[in-house]
Amino acid sequence: MQVELVKRLCDCLSENRLYAYRTNSCETQSDILCRYLWNVALCQAFYPVLHMHEVGLRNRCDLALTIKYGSAWLETGSFGFMEYQKNCISDARNELAKRTKPRDHGRLVAELHFGFWTSLFNREFEGRWHGVLRHAFPHLSGSMRTRATIAKRLDSIRRFRNRVFHHERILHHPFMAIHRELREAIDWMGSEFSAFCSACDQVKTAYAAGPRRMMEPLNGAFPEHGFR
Questions:
Q1: Which has the closest alpha carbon to 6: 223, 222, 228?
Q2: I want to staple 48 with a disulfide (CB 3.0 to 4.6 A). Which of 24, 31, 87, 200 is the partner?
Q3: First to last CA, the chain
Q4: Is 26 inside a domain boundary?
Q5: Burial degree of 29 (CB within 10 A; 0-12, 13-18, 19+)
Q6: How far is it, in rounded angstroms, from Cα 142 to Cα 186?
Q7: Overall pTM > 0.85
Q8: What are the pLDDT digits (tens) for 89-135?
Q9: What is the number of domains present in the chain?
Q10: What residues make up the domain containing 75?
């Protein structure tokens, strides 16, 4: 019966996707299903931390760049954008117009996607951040407070974030190491903000529970199959 159930689940999940969670040929169907559900639970646990980092990053960047380039730095292009950033801003403005939302600075900051904000730390913008990185990341130590250090960290977070938000497998990634890097990057922005993030960070709890924790909800969904 379990084999037939898994076949029906594959109609929705695809066999390739589901069986990517198999680690050896001796595993039971319940092992695979529990690992799949655990991956979903871990991604769910990562969402608040990723949320805090993304929102914090864009507002910290806006604060710092406003100090150097003025409150209309996005609108005037005084930062010296490349074509990619110009297109992102244009798309964001068009999206706000489509939804009949005011195209004021605050809404534009919120509408711009994560890739835009991380791209501001690309190598070609090295000189743009001189004198203001400390305003964006006040808790990042002076020796580490460089565009290159921040860019490397943001690229790692961005690639992991995209896996989570695109519903991909994260179990084969060093996700707990990424969690530590993510929390450290949040701490760069301020101790109070980091403490606030701790109030909703459930990643360690989800990790400690392990895949077998999903056995109970699995049997709750399919009590007739007796998964164990």
A1: 222
A2: 200
A3: 14
A4: yes
A5: middle
A6: 16
A7: yes
A8: 999 999 999 999 999 999 999 999 999 999 999 999 999 999 999 99
A9: 1
A10: 2-221
Q: How distant is the alpha carbon of residue 6 from its chain centre? A: 30
Q: Assess contact for 169 and 35: CB atoms under 8 A.
A: no
Q: Does residue 7 fall inside a structural domain?
A: yes
Whether 93 contacts 108, CB under 8 Å: yes
What three-state secondary structure class fits 87? helix
Does residue 226 fall inside a structural domain?
no
CA distances from residue 88 to 109, 110, 113, 125 in whole angstroms, order as listed: 11, 12, 8, 16
pLDDT tens-digit series, residues 38-82: 999 999 999 999 999 999 999 999 999 999 999 999 999 999 999
87/93 Cα distance (integer angstroms): 10
